[in-house]
Structure formats: C-alpha cells, structure tokens
Amino acid sequence: MRLKHTLILLTMVSVVADTLLLPFYPQFFAEAFGETSAAHVGAYIAACCFTVMTAFPLWARLARKIDEVHLWIYTQIAAGCLGLYCAQTQSLLGFWIASQLMLVFKASYLLIYPYVLRLEEKDNHLNVAGLFSVMVHFGAIGGALVGGSLLQYFAAQSVYYFMAASDAVQVALCIGLVLTLKTPLRKTVTPVQDAAGGESGFLFGLSPLVLKISFVSALFYFSSFMARPYFSVYWEGVSGVEQKMLSALVYSIPAWVALACLWMGRNANGPQNHVQKIQWGALAAIVGLVLQASESMVLIVLGRCLFGYGLYQIMVRLEVILFEKSTPDDYAADFSKVHFFQNVGVIGASFSVGYIVDALGVLHTFTASVVGFCLALVCFYLLFKPRVETTSASGNNATMTLSGVSND
C-alpha cells in the first residue's frame, strides 16, 4: 500500500475511534457514572480540547527530529493501554485522568495532515484539504453510528474497548510502513525559518497571516461547536424518537454535504477566490442554524445541509490560505498554531454550551451559534477584505489584493 493511502487509512481509523462518543457524551456520563450535569459534560469536552491543543504543538516540535511514523507507534501503544483502563474504571476521577492522558498521545495523529500535504504540490492543496475534511466528516459518521450502536446494545464504557482495538490497528499499520519504507528513526535537522511565507512573527512568534487565520478560526470553531454537543438530544426531543442510530444519521448530514462539495469541486482548476467562498459559506451556515432552531424536522434536515455546506467552505479554505503562504518544513508548526486557536474556540463553546443548556434550554444553543457566526463573519471581512494598492508612481494603475494574503 502506498504511503499516502496508508496515511489516509490511519486518519479514517483514528477519526472513527475518536468520535464514537462526540454526539453522546451526555448519555455516556449518565449511564457510566450517573453524572447528568450539562455543565460537567461541557467541562469535560473543554478539557479534552485543552489537552489536545497543548499536546499537539509539542508533538510538532518533536517531529522536527523524530520521524512521525516511528512516533505514532509509541504514542498509540500508550493510548491503547490507557483506553483499556478507561473501559474498566468505576472512578469518575480516574476516568478523567486516564482519558486526558490518552488524548495527549492521540494528539500526535494530527501530524498526519501536514505530513500528507508535504507529499503534494501546492496546486493540489485545496483537494487534499477537502479530502481530509470529508474524511473527518465521514469518520465522524462512522464514529457516530458505531458509538450509537455500542451505547444502545452494550455497556457505555465498552466504547473504549473499541478505541483500544483501533489503536492496535494503527500500530500495526505504522510498523508495516517502517518495515516497508525502512524509515529512519531520526530526521536530518534543518534550521527553523520564519513560517507562513517568510513573514516575521510579531506576537508570540505568530506571523501576521497565521495570527489572522488563528483569530477567525477560533471564532468560527466556537460558533460551530455551540450547536453540536446537544444536537442529538435536541433532535430526539423534536422528533419524539429516542433512536440513537437515527440521531446519529441526522447528526452526520453535514458530512454527506461535505462529500458532495468535494466531488463537485474535484475538477476545479485555476485561481480560487477563497475569501469570497468563506463569506458565502458563513452566510449559508447562519441560515442553516436558523432553520435548525425551527423545531420542524423537515427544516432541521434542510438546515443541516446548509450548515454542512457552510462549514466545508469555511474550514477547508481557511487552511488552504494558510498552506499557500507556508513552506513544507513549516506546515506542521503553522498548522499546530492554528489548531491551538481552533481549540480555544471549542473550549469556550464547551464551557458556554453547558451553562446555556442548564439556564435557557437546548434551543438557545442555536441562538448563541448564530450570534457567533455573525461576529466571525464581520471579523473575517474586516481582516481579509480586498484592498486597492497603487502600483505606479502616477497612481493610474492599481491592483486588487487581499488583506493579509496578498502576494508580495
């Protein structure tokens, strides 16, 4: 199996395993530990995001010296052992500690994305970013379906046996790659250069472009995540059908939309107006959220479709803008910085959504999400709006460029 195809398979296995409980954390904690507090669920999700976002930059730094494939072997062995503990412990505190340590090691798998991008030409980055977006979405579909089935027919903590088994599969695939490619453990260390197209950092080591993308990504991720953790609960309340498989299917609609977007854009060539696409995507997501709050099953499904289209355009094209200005050696470092801020947004949403549900009800998570998307869209427009630059002394000639993403 080719290196790229194996890495894609690793990504799919990882995403499926890591999203088994994402739509069902409220039900999981209620069944496994008798914990029904919405604030507790929000705090746990926030802790998961914090763990991953702080661990990933450390793995990205280590990956400058140690080959990623070798690294993944050891991290997934550790993650699998901790997953087995999570499947058996009866202590809520013990579960918290072990599951967070497990995520520290699982965070290393985020290196797959920049690793694959290094294998591709920049002209193909939009397709690669779209492919990974679809894989994440469809991994979430598989995770939601498998997780819903496990929760419906088995004890809640049995989910972690499945996670441990997936870690074993990933270890076997990585060992196969090392043996086939004869990959050395250590890399040839190259001097670290300024990231994001050579721009010098001016705040916490972030270049102007990375800082802009990080900021708007945090807002978009905050807004999108507000409507996720309790969607299955909301759908079951509206439909009157407490069927986990059906809830998982409706939850997964944005993934099918992402696949359709990837298929329709597979032959797109030439320059892309990423900024305009992101703006239209944000508007589509806002309309989709409003429809989901209608408490009409038909409109909820339609809203999920629009929401999925919007998220695809926003998430994929923000990353393409980043990688267009970055260099292959800096892909992992730059992506880890943006990923850090993405998780800042998810953490903020995780804490907020629990209190919103407790105080106002599930329906108002959509209200908060709409407000967040509106704010994110305004900030994105202000940071990336077109500007006219004069290119001649007389001022008669001018070129239109994008703020922060122009070619200097």
From TrEMBL:
Alphabetically ordered keywords of this record: Membrane, Transmembrane, Transmembrane helix
Membrane spanning residue stretches: 41-59, 71-87, 93-116, 128-154, 160-181, 202-225, 245-265, 277-293, 363-384
Name this polypeptide is given: Major facilitator superfamily transporter
Residues in coiled coil: none
Protein species of origin: Simiduia agarivorans (strain DSM 21679 / JCM 13881 / BCRC 17597 / SA1)
Pfam families, per the entry: MFS_1
Annotated GO MF terms: transmembrane transporter activity
Top-level lineage group: Bacteria
